[in-house]
Amino acid sequence: MKKMKRQKTVAIIAFIGMLLPAFCTILCVNNHYRFRNLVGMNVQFGSFLIAPFIFSVLLLTLFSLEEQNDTWKNILTAGISKSALFLSKITAALTFVVLFAGINTAYTMAGGVVLRNYDPDFIRVFSVFLVTSFAAVAGTMPVAWLIVLLRRKYLIAMIAANMFVMFNFILVWQVTMFRCLELRLPILLAYRIIYPVSILEYTDNLRTGLDTLYYPAEKGILILSLNVIGSLLLAVGTGKRQEE
After folding, report:
1. Angle, to 10 degrees, between the axis of helix 82-112 and the axis of helix 122-139?
2. N or C: which end of the chain has fewer CB within 10 A?
3. Are 166 and 115 spatial neighbours (Cβ–Cβ below 8 Å)?
4. What is the model's pLDDT at position 225?
5. Helices 142-150 and 51-69: crossing angle, nearest 10°?
6. Ramachandran sector of residue 30 (left: φ over 0; alpha: ψ -120 to 50; beta: rest)
7. What is the reported pTM?
8. Residue 140 confidence (pLDDT)
9. Per-residue pLDDT reduced to its tens digit, 15-59
10. Domain boundaries, position 6
11. Closest CA relative to residue 236, chosen from 54, 88, 15, 74
């Protein structure tokens, strides 16, 4: 974590993490939207674009640091397993996702003061952003395998990871317009099962969206869990083969 604080990449990510929620807040204030519109906008762009982007870039940065400093073999000789080392990187990257959810909440609450139907429940809004961010990261977890596969080629890995995250976000964008509903991709199921959670204020015009995007939560969570487990196992296995 200390090494990451000195990285320019992390500083850029932190700036982006603050910039987008601020932009959405200003947009909603200028257009006199309701508070629920601001929350929905920050869920879509924050949780399903920025959160997976932060996770993937930070995970790649952690691998890159070990490649640059040649500390991977030294850590392994200390008796730490490759699986434990990989999971520690996942945990560190997820920590920044939690921090981003907090930043997203802070900007949302600050901007929401001047919006209609403002709900001052910080814990509730933070829970929405945290749950939706984790769901989005779970939906894009195959990026972890992609990063491990290409980790020794930093630039290529960065481009590939960002393209993967952006492609997933474009699919989510299509689903918000009731397209691609026949696809059962993890990222799309993630959005569909958290959609009811992201709604702070139920209105009649939301009924169409709730009915159209409905997907059984239990089944969706199971698929997301299998996606996470499968992606992590594949990533760990790929890393072990690279060291042989």
Report:
1. 140
2. C
3. no
4. 96
5. 30
6. alpha
7. 0.87
8. 96
9. 776 777 778 878 888 888 888 888 888 999 999 999 999 999 999
10. 2-243
11. 88
Residue 47 tokens, joined = 């949780």
Number of domains in the chain: 1
| pLDDT value of residue 12 | 66
Q: What is the pLDDT of residue 61?
A: 87
Q: Which residue's entry shows tokens 């996470």?
A: 228
pLDDT beneath 50, residues of the chain? 2, 5-6
Task: Tell the burial category of 6 from Cβ atoms under 10 Å away from its Cβ (0-12, 13-18, 19+).
Answer: exposed
How much is the pLDDT for 80?
Answer: 63
CB contact at 8 A, 154 and 64: yes
In the prediction, which pLDDT does 201 show? 75
pLDDT, residue 198, reads: 86
112 to 21, 28, 38, 105, 179: CA distances (angstroms): 12, 9, 7, 10, 30
**Residue burial 44-72, b: 16+ Cβ < 10 Å; e: rest:** bbbbbbbbbbbbbbbbbbbbbbbeeeeeb
